[in-house]
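haha ok so turns out i had the wrong file open the whole time. this is the CORRECT one, sorry everyone. sequence first:
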Amino acid sequence: MLLCFAIGIPEVDAAVQRKPKKKAATAQRAQRTTSKGQGRTSKKAGASTRSKRAAASKSRGRARSRGREVPISSLSSIRERDLAPGVRYTMYRSNGSRPVVAHVVSMDRTLPGTAVRLIKGEDHGAGLERLGELYRRYESGTDNKLFALVNGNFWRAVRNTMIGPCVIDGEVVEMNRYKKWTSGFLDVRSQLTIDTFAITGSVAFAGRSYAVSTVNRREDDGVVVYNSYGGDRIPHVNAKEIEKAFYEAVKDSVFAERDSTELELTKEVLRGEVARAQREASTEYPMVKIRVRYLRLPSINTQIPCAILGIDSGTVAMPLRGAVISMPRSMFLSGAAPRIGDTLMLTYKTNVHSNVRFMNAVSGTPRLVRDGTAKHEAQLEGSTGKRFISHNLARTALGTDRSGNRIMIVAIQADDPGRGTSGATLQQTAKVMALLGCYQAMNLDGGGSTGMVVENDHVFFDGEDPLTRRVGLGIGVVQLSKILRTPR
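then structure:
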């Protein structure tokens, strides 16, 4: 339009110059008419430009709306079945821009015999097994019926020890807390309490009490308690076993691409772990070791009386249904020494809910749901990794409803382009747990470790299970073959 306007004026002027004077008035009227027409055309051009700009703005708005992520707000059941009275498996798909698939097993803990059990890899503090192997070994070694199993604690590569508190049937596998991580403790009736737990231990004999420094591994010259999860003899360090564990960890690192943790394994790491283990063994060897047998079932927040079976140094065998308390000899110089046949008192206490007798405990991070509010607490617990918090990853979670009677174990699958679904961020995982009815919930080890086995079938896969990562701990929903009366 501007081009026409620029050409139009010279053409009109030339026409006026060629007209005779007697027709000048007519030419002037024609020029005024042309000028008015051009003015109207200019106004129309402005209106048209404004209209196009408005249309373009609306188009951009629609594009932004299409690109805006739609949050998860509902879950639809895809598949479900009852595994037993009060135990149900359900496969859900969420709505949202990036739908997630969540496999859920819910359990009514109030039904007689229904319980949560923790299963340690290879029944050893540093043992790892694949979920399917854990499932089958538990099924073949007990009369209990195992319905479902998911992975539990995070664990340290190479040495494979649990991160954060871990308690199995009253025996402490790992005592010390990590950062401000969350833990889930289960009492004798499988009621789940989620909080920032810490465990402290003490050993008392001959009128004196000694604080426990660590369990199943030595980090300083304090008191260490070893139990069956520490091995069949103390100390026990085999460089070849550590090297084997290292190369197994390297194999497992193929799952790190979509993992929730950073994993870097080098020969330097291996040498460092071997050297550290050897230092621990050399420190442990001269310690005085008190071999004891439990006189009652161990648990948390109750005293465990133990009969002293023997006192020695060097390498000692782990007693059946007992423990080895390792102490520096200098501790006996200022007090009476223990004697064979005496009773020693072993006690583990929690910093919160210390009036509850706990039997099992699992640790993870972060808290996902607190008092019904879905909001992850990663930063509060010391986790700041962008990948861990914000990437869409496979996730594992544990939660309970407001009554505390229904427990849920949840496994969210990783990206599945064929299904059009993806893994979840921490906040999406929190939302899923809240939608499932969880009033309290926590995140567990995820990424390549995430999985769920239901009735001996890995629900992530059709047919035979492919190679999956080995894990240190499984959380199972079981039907007990015998319902024992336990002291309150």
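Residues 2-67 form one domain.
again sry for the mixup
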